[in-house]
Structures
1.
Amino acid sequence: MCEAIINKIKQLKKEHNAVILAHNYVASELQDIADVLGDSLQLSIEASKLGAPVIVFCGVSFMAETAKILSPNSKVLLPVKTAGCPMADMATGEAVAEFRRTHPDYVLVAYVNSTAAVKAEVDICCTSANAEKIVAPIPRDKKIMFLPDRNLGRNVAKALNREMEFWPGYCPIHNAITVADVEAIKQENPGMEFLVHPECTPEVVALADKAMSTGGMLKYIRESDKQAFIVGTECGIMHRLRIENPTKTLIPFKPTPTCTDMKKLGLADVLACLEAPMENNPYEVVLDEELMDRARKPIERMLQFK
Ligand code: 13P
Ligand code: SF4
């Protein structure tokens, strides 16, 4: 059954000259058919240089929007239109525009986990992989509003030892990782290296050996001499980690962090979006041209920081 769907997807991909991008958190069967699998930064970079006529984005809506903004001539398909990001929805374009109007002296830094409408209002974007690099060169006398993730913002401010203000948003999955759960899992697994995502609270990050993006964790574990790791992020990453590190001990955090939005997509959804007529495809991400032009600027500013 699975094989039949995969073969059909491969055939339609060829017919439409399509490429499949997938985030490290999506279901394993989607990771296995992806042409590019990565973290938000890696996927943004790929989207900016692909030039493929059709991009199928296995991830959530803000990622597919970013791909569309960076590849405006491609048809970007999001196989499940309701796959969103609760944190991205915690900041609206209107609220950010209002902040900008009432605080003209602030530099607005938006995590890419934000809607296109929010990106259109800010100065620069960042991901969890480059947030410190993006904020560091902003002159110290400038006020900064970091949005929408207060946790990533607080972690960056702490690392750079600078004053910043934070939008009151958070990732419900990473924010739910508690100090008590961290202490328990570390006690059960002494000597294991503990990695977390910087969307966790600073209190949790303080207990970790390293805080990194999903791409950073994959690279770190692959290249490390250490043999055992507790992985403090969404459970989808475990699939690729286990393939790449068959001899290492890798345990997911407990209780298992699971993003229900990332898990909304399956093989049948990818097939459905490739089977739908490409003209007026119901899965297509459609954004206003003028909005895309405004949202592209802060993303391009970010991409200049390689
Ligand atoms: P990264 O893959 O960029 O670390 O992002 C994590 C995330 O929460 C994406 O939704
Ligand atoms: Fe959004 Fe968190 Fe899910 Fe990432 S893991 S898509 S930040 S809710």
Note: The chain has a mean pLDDT of 96.
2.
Amino acid sequence: MTDDHNIFVTEEIVEGADDGPLADATVAVKDNISTEGVRTTCGSAMLDDYVPPYDATVVESLKAAGATIVGKANMDEFGMGSTTETSAFGPVENPAAPGRVPGGSSGGSAAAVAAGEADLALGSDTGGSVRNPAAFCGVVGIKPTYGLVSRYGLVAYANSLEQIGPLGPTVEATAELLDVISGPDDRDATSREEGADTDYASAADGDVAGTTIGVPTELVEGADAGVRERFEETLEDLRDGGAIVEEVSLPSVEHAVEAYYVIAMSEASSNLARFDGVRYGNSGGFEGNWNEAFSDSREAFGEEVKRRILLGTYALSAGYHDKYYKQAQDARAWVKQDFDEAFESVDVLASPTMPTPPFEQGESLEDPLQMYLADANTVPVNLADLPAISVPAGETDAGPVGVQFVGPAFGEEAIIRVGSAVEN
Ligand code: GLN
């Protein structure tokens, strides 16, 4: 196997059970999902030789379903990024748009599917990391409702926001992988019964007659012209299929990016405290002073990770907690309420997944703020704990465009149905 796009951190074959629904499928697994006996780096030098002693629940499910794991997919360090350029193992190139980023942070997972290096892939989505690379690489990605899929064995970045999610070449194949990984798990107290005995794959029937699709104006206005064109064409096709399209408003999403980054960085600063060279992570060596030993060890983090730990620690500090963290939580509640109200009158919401086509490699690294703003359409969904799918909707000169459909909590079937109609 040749890996021209730097898709894998580790290429290693793990065979699953002899039969099962995924017996013929190969799967790439994002490198922040624990695999027993197979190195799991999170794209970080901190964990470059870490080999987990156990499987994540989703990996157990893959093996039981007969899947063959083909490797651990490259990613932004600890999931912090939107372009897969913050990996300590080098950037991934977009197989569908040469010279451009694959999106992130699950860029290796999406690129594996786009390049045909794996039939399917698992990523994780804290603020868009499954949907963004799916859109940029021209594949399908689903961010499940919070609690649908066990997070046991997922190395935490911001645990109140993130879910493991599937990527695949078609809506049906991606939904089938979601069927395999969803379900309650005793080892994750936030997992929920709703995921038991699902049959999402059969919801990919393309039937949108009578479905009401709301378009939040706030999530369309800022998009590039080429992206908007593909989006409008998609809506036109859905209308032809019998869907009813109407405008809705989500005024709170104006604050979603700020709220998301305060909450994500705060949780990250706490979750990443375990990487001190004693509990986890490479040791800097002990020469009589523990503070020095810890800080030497934490030198292994990359720049983006350090920036977030510093900002998150600041936002949680005694004097600033009310001003930043508490306000962000209030905004999160407002975003949830806006979505609840919208779903009183529509079945699903639609928007471009990303406001732009894929960036050129290197373009966004100098300007972190610009990179954070690219998440405007994806982070509201994580703040509200909702399910969303990104489906390919054609291309611009710069590469693929994805359209996102958001559903009410545990409304995976509705977004899968509408997503499959876009493919037809
Ligand atoms: N780009 C967002 C961030 O950097 C989302 C990442 C993710 O979903 N893991 O936090």
Note: Residues 79-82, 105, 125-129, 157, 264, 375 surround glutamine (CB under 6 Å).
